[in-house]
Amino acid sequence: MMTPEIIEAVRILRAGGLVAFPTETVYGLGGDATNEAAIRKIFYVKQRPMNHPLIVHVADVAQLTDWALDLSPKIERLAAAFWPGPLTMVLRKKPQVSPLLTGGQETIALRIPRHPVALALLKAFDGGLAAPSANQFTHISPTTKLAVEEELGGKIEMILEGGACDVGLESTIIDLSGNIPVILRPGMISCDALQQVLNEPVFNARSEHKVVAPGNHGLHYAPLTETVLMKREAIVSFLSNLMPKDLPLACVLHHDLNLSPIAGVQMIQLSSDPHHYAHDLYDTLRSLDHQQLKKILIEAVPEDTNWDAIRDRIMKASAKRER
Ligand code: TXA
Ligand code: MG
After folding, report:
1. Out of 56, 65, 116, 231, which could bridge 128 as a Cys pair, Cβ 3.0 to 4.6 Å?
2. How far is the CA of 219 from the centre of ligand 1 (A)?
């Protein structure tokens, strides 16, 4: 739908400005992917190192050939199954694609998001939008317009409203540029789901190889408050030996610990369903981060593959910061 907001957003983007927009995963910070000045602005505004490549968002599969070489049947199968949706494909790039987008690599990350505002914007813009998550480098990705304002307010021309993001975690990234498909970043589209559609093994970079998406390091997605990942039993024993220096604190749980209330301890009960948990995680961590807590304890989540993306993000959220 061509709303006045979309028309204004397209005007800004064509002039080389930046517009944050909702996607079903997290809000993105969009700029014209063919405009090097706009791309540089994205890195500058986020304070993101230039060697961390960006994802180019497009409205439909026909646009892939503007960016990527040779579309294989594998790519077409994945596109048919998961696009528009929370999947990013890393493909071999066309020579004319700016190295600023790709961190100097020979591959380009591409995605068709399914949020109606993102699709309306991409259709009206009629080109590729480079869009990293709309947060400062190393901060938690924003899942509401308010969170984008907190991260980038005053630094970008416009923020489009799209409500709370459906999925709540960044897209699954699959690298199809080599012989074997490799997941570079787990997301809510699982390894199993990808294997089923491709009908071949898909590797997990994190567990089976040491390949990682550049910029996918431990400082991402972290609250500023000290955040610790603990098994349920460890949380229970920690809470039974509390010291005044630990308070106030919050526990982020995925099932009820059945404890009586403890002064200074906030129990946040997220869902035991991974999709609902994912939807609420970043917003919960962001609001806890505003509360001057001494600590955030996050309960370790189940080992099964439906929790892979969540396990990845809470491990990063609890990674020790360099001080
Ligand atoms: O859900 C999402 O993917 C969101 C929304 C806005 O679409 N975007 C997002 O972008 O999470 P960003 O920039 O925060 O994360 C992009 C990730 C980075 O980890 C980057 O290293 C990886 O994609 N990436 C981009 N291009 C790549 C490439 N050519 N090869 C390997 N990894 C790449
Ligand atoms: Mg990001």
Report:
1. 56
2. 15
